[in-house]
Specification:
Elements (H helix, E strand, L loop, with lengths): L1 H75 L4 H46 L3 H7 L8 H31 L6 H18 L11 H21 L10 H7 L6 H11 L8
Helix pairs in contact: 4-6
């Protein structure tokens, strides 16, 4: 009985190991099939890409051949009377220009030779009296006027660039009080300028972005909003307090100017007290 039980256990173990081996083999085959499919798809995509590149190269080559054939046709066609006359006139003009350049060169060389001879004569005359010449005509020391001008130009260039960069940094810091980013605030600024242009019937022109004006607008907007936050109640303010509101903002318009601006913004409606 023990021997039969032992043989049954061996048979069961053999069957179990056979099933395990079969499962492993199936997994390997399945994974190999998936990898094969991926490899084939990759090769197909690469072949399609290479085919497109080759077709593009062939199109470019055909265009080049067509261009060369047209160019050869243009150069090989016989010249008519007008073309011959034009070519003759062009050759004549080129020859005349060459002669003029030679004349200018000869004239320049003559002037240069005359100047050199005059300079040599003056040097021969003044050489024995060099000490007297230096005493009566001292040479200026230090940078010349041109060097001073160039130095001032470089200093202004770097100083102005530094000022513009600092202003840009200040604007980027101030923008955070008025919106999430600089682009959003610039859109608000542009929309405000478009509304003002429509209110005052100004001609439609480009709206330039000037950093100084944008910074001034941000400061004014911040000041007005701070004063409004002190006077508002439920995000509203009585119209009778508008004049005092502007005075708190260091602006002193008259009642007539306030009513006129109100009517302009509200399309002709009067301000109610």
């Amino acid at each position: 009985m023990k021997k039969e039980a032992f043989q049954d256990e061996i048979v069961k173990a053999f069957e179990h190991q056979k099933k395990v081996n079969a499962a492993v083999n199936i997994h390997q085959l399945f994974s190999g099939f998936i990898n094969q499919e991926n490899i084939l798809a990759f090769l197909a995509s690469q072949s399609t890409k290479n085919l497109k590149i080759w077709e593009k190269h062939l199109r470019w080559q055909r265009q080049q051949e067509l261009y060369r054939s047209r160019l050869m046709h243009i150069y090989s066609r016989p010249l008519n009377v007008e073309m011959l006359a034009w070519r003759k006139a062009l050759l004549k003009t080129k020859l005349q220009q060459k002669i003029d350049r030679k004349k200018q060169k000869r004239s320049y060389l003559r002037r240069l030779q005359k100047f050199n001879s005059l300079r040599n004569r003056r040097i021969e005359y003044m050489e024995p009296h060099k000490d007297i010449l230096n005493a009566l005509h001292p040479k200026g020391r230090g940078p010349s006027a041109y060097e001073k001008k160039m130095a001032a130009t470089f200093i202004q260039k770097f100083a102005r660039g530094w000022l513009v960069r600092m202003r840009y940094k200040r604007i980027k810091m101030k923008v955070l009080d008025h919106g999430p980013s600089l682009v959003v605030v610039l859109k608000k600024y542009r929309n405000m300028m478009i509304r003002l242009r429509r209110y005052f019937h100004a001609p439609k022109q480009a709206i330039p972005l000037v950093y100084s004006e944008l910074e001034e607008w941000l400061d004014s907007k911040k000041r007005y909003e701070d004063v409004f936050s002190k006077r508002e109640y439920l995000n509203e303010m009585n119209t009778s307090e508008v004049l005092n509101y502007f005075q708190d903002c260091d602006n002193y318009p008259s009642q007539r100017e306030v009513k006129k601006s109100w009517a302009l913004i509200k399309n002709g409606h009067k301000m109610h007290q």
